Each structure stands twice: as structure tokens, then as C-alpha cells.
């Protein structure tokens, strides 16, 4: 048997705060033993676990790995609006007039992530 992906790890300056933000974004929950000031925080989501680890070095460039989110119960544009209201920032808009494309946002610590079309939106365009 090969290895399994246990979780994805995100370096950040405030693990608890960033994990809380992502918990809202992904409808996940933090581990019961995670508290403000902890050096790490574990977020469990339907899509897998994300571990946030405190690092002292500031983010210095584009992420080499990023999340691609696909809304489950709303459109891409509705999800972008929801995430912006939570505190994300629009980084680059790749949405096209025909409804295809995606939006690249950043979380409160500047980590890029993309919001793609929902499965229903994709099905309507095929």
C-alpha cells in the first residue's frame, strides 16, 4: 500500500485565528484542544483535515500549493461574495462573460485560493 495524505499543512502567523476563518469558509470545526495562542490548530472538514502551524517567517511570495474550492450549495459567484464578506480579498478575477473561469482570493494572511464553478454550473455548460 502507498502512503495516504493525512492532512495539508499551512504555515501562518496565528494558527488559531486562521483556522477559525477557514472553519467558517469550509464549514469545518477545530479540534477540541485548540485554543488562541496555540502553536498549531487542526481543522477537520468534509474534504479532509488542514493543520495550521505557527511560523515566524512572513509569507514571501506566491503559494506553491493552494486550495481550489467548489461550492456545493450555491454558485461560484455567490460563494465568492460569501468569502469576501468573511474577510477574503479578491486577488485575481478569471471569470469570463460566458460563465466559465474562476476567482482567486486570499485569506486573511494572504494565502491564495481559488473558487471554481459548482458542479451544477459545470453541468449546465456541458
Give a brief outline of the structure.
The chain is of the alpha/beta class. It has helices spanning 15-26, 76-86, 119-124, and strands at 8-12, 29-30, 40-45, 48-54, 67-69, 89-93, 103-106, 112-115.
What is the number of strand segments?
A: 8
Rg over C-alpha atoms, rounded to the nearest angstrom: 15 Å
Number of helices: 3
Largest sheet entry: 4 strands, mixed
SSE order:
EHEEEEHEEEH
Percent helix, as a range, is: 10-25%
The low-confidence runs, each spanning 5 or more residues with pLDDT under 50, are none
Strand order of the largest sheet: 1-4-3-2
Span between termini? 37 Å
Strand content: 25-35%
Average predicted local confidence, pLDDT: 94
Sum up the structure in keywords:
3 helices; single chain; globular; 126 residues; 29% strand
Could you describe the 3D structure shown?
By secondary structure, the chain is α/β, with parallel strands linked by helices. Helix content is 23%, strand content 29%. It is built from 3 helices and 8 strands, in the order E-H-E-E-E-E-H-E-E-E-H. A 4-stranded mixed beta sheet has the order 1-4-3-2, covered by helices on one side. Strand 7 and strand 8 form a beta hairpin. The relative contact order is 0.19.
